[in-house]
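[User]
If only I could read backbone structure tokens as easily as an amino acid sequence. I have put the entry right below:
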Amino acid sequence: MKIFSLAVVLAPPGKTCTILSSASDLSTFSFYQRGSVAEFMAFFTKTLSERTPQGQRQSVQENNYVAHVYNRGGAEQLAAVLIADQEYPVRPAFSLLTKLLDDFVAKVPQASYANANPGGITFSEIEIYLQKYQDPRQADAIMRVQAELDETKIVLHKTIESVLERGEKINDLVDRSNALSMQSKMFYKTAKKQNSCCLIM
């Protein structure tokens, strides 16, 4: 089980999202892949934050990864995203995202992130969470927010395509994205091709 990325996102409805603070552990990728993987983690973090309605949680699978998204909305208009492998369990993932948002709101004044640059807020706890909760039992033992979690619908999507708008394709989004370098776009297409040839039905 592995968490690759954790992020707090400013997610105003109907507008472009901004990643306020993030942490990642890409040590399982080769040195040459890490830049492209980091760009794609940020790309999916923003895309899924924009496409998760306020007050909802959803889990979205893309290739061998699952992004767990909690768009809390409210006055702060914040979302949190955790990208992990498929083995990382859903309940601890959402417990961690709830804890992350609670701590962020408690420790970072709202005025500081209303006009923040991408990644511009220092929130050292996010690195601690990324390391500590690699073991999902830590999140489950400490977090007891199951009652709140049960009250809120979690939407599980099989693929990223099911999150996109009708007729919209992930490959088109990738091609149009200004946030991704040409190298990252080629990396994505190559990885997608390699994964598609190996699917077992």
